[in-house]
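The methods section describes the discrete structure representation at length, but only in general terms. What matters is that the chain and its backbone geometry are given together, residue for residue. Nothing conveys this as quickly as seeing an actual entry. For illustration, here is how one protein appears when written out as sequence plus structure tokens:
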Amino acid sequence: MKNQKITFTTILLALGFFSLLLVPKAFGIVPPPDGGYPGGNTAEGQSALLSLTTGGFNTGVGFLSLRSDTTGSFNTAIGAGALFANTADSNTATGVGALLSNTTGSQNNANGAFALFLNTTGDFNTATGFEALFSNTDGDSNTASGVLALFSNTTGSNNTAVGVQALFINTTGHDNTANGGFALFSNTTGTQNTASGDFALLNNTTGSNNTANGVSALRSNTTGTENTASGVQALFSNTIGFDNTANGFQALGSNTTGTENTANGHQALQSNTTGSNNTANGVSALRRNTTGSNNTASGLEALFSNATGFNNTASGVQALQGNTNGTENTANGYQALQSNTEGADNTASGVRALFSNTTGSGNTAGGFQALISNTEGSNNTASGEAALASNTTGFENTASGAVALNHNTTGQSNTASGVAALAFNTTGSFNIALGTNAGNGVTTASNVICIGTGGENVSNSCYIGQIFGKTSTVGTAVFINSAGKLGTTTSSRRFKEGIKPMDKASEVVLALKPVSFHYKKDIDPQGIAQFGLVAEDVEAVNPDLVVRDAEGKVNTVRYDAVNAMLLNEFLKEHCRAEEQQSKLEQQQATITDLKSTVAQQQRNFDSRLAQQEKQVESLLTNLQRVNERLEANGNGAAPQVVVNNQ
């Protein structure tokens, strides 16, 4: 239809032009034109330079060429009717009807039949090709090279069209550049567009500041502005989207109204329609994205399957390749988050990190194959080669270090810091391991804390290495309350109030019943004999002497308080013993005094007795002597005196 209209218009103009043959023959130079003439003018052809008066250095070759020129100079017209109405200077027209309507326009160059045919006052235009810049009237500084290039341009300026029907419909648009057949074909008032390639920006009408390089690049664009497309069919379907950049075959090929997208690579963002603020660098990057926005993909097939997901960032070959609706994910590395479909808020940095993740969200993986098996687990953090590598649905785990939590599958809320920390844990949850190989003894147990040691597969336990058997010469005991707070007992007066003697308060310890016992097998498999107290029995005596757990249940005995009470009872007993000792010492002194007195009395008695014995002996001696004398004197029987010592 367009070509029929063009042909019809051309026929009418040609008929009007050739009707000039009916006018009487007259010439502005004498003799009739036949070569060179004064003023540096050259005329060859019927009515060539017919009206010239003072103009110089003009060349008119052809029927009616430069016919109306009077004072214009430096014009060249070669072809029937070329520069027919011209009066201005420095125009060049080559071809039938070239610059036919030009009057005062200057420094125009038209090469081709009917090139710049309707130009009247436009300056600095160049038209090369059949009917190039045909409709231009007063547009300036346009360049058209190709059949029907810039055909409809009227007042548009600074346009460049190279190719068949390039910028064909442009009327008032300016500063456009079209290189290729039908490039910017439909442009009317759009400005500052650049199209290089057949059909580039073919349908653009009023869109401005667009750049299209490649066959059919930005072909469907109508009013979209500030788009850049480089490559065959790049931004092919874009209509009103703006601020898009596409480099590569079919890059952003389906984009219609999406804005501020950047696609670099073969079929990058090919399916994008209305998604905005996306960046795709690499072959097929973000290829299937349709309405997703604010995505960034760098690498072969990065974010390949993304459709509606937004705020995703993928850097690496096939990173986030399977993502469809997942949002706010970040993947850096070969096949990082490759299988993710709807998972959100994930971050994967490293080759195949979070490789199998599909719907898991809030995960962070940094390192080769970190969280590689995770599918639906959420809020996991893995930092290190193969950290949390076997995790599938476990959530809220944190692994820092190569192979940390490597075998964890469904365990949740575990924290492992160190190479191979909690490496063999599979389903255990709420475990904490700190240090290289820490927690390696834990597999299925939960609520286990291991610091600097492998620990054991016993739930609700705590293991700390480098303490047992290590002597500390200065320090104090460490205690823990039901809330898990560690601390030491402070004894300084500055921390205390209400200080008073314990007095009889400690006598309750005398009611305590020490026992021997064995812990249950799950606590002490070896069954070593233990000695101590039963907390419930102690509670019955004095509730202040027991420690309760977080639920308020009796848990253990305050042995430190018991020891203090025992010390008080010991001191009280010691005082009583000292009092008794004092009494004993006093009694002993009394006894000693009594013994001394008795001994003295004994000695006195013995002395008196000895004296009496001596006196008796003396009396007996004297009696013996008397008796002997009596016998001697009487020579007969005499009375005998019996000595009785008793």
Summary: The longest strand covers residues 41-44. DSSP finds three helices and 33 strands in the chain.
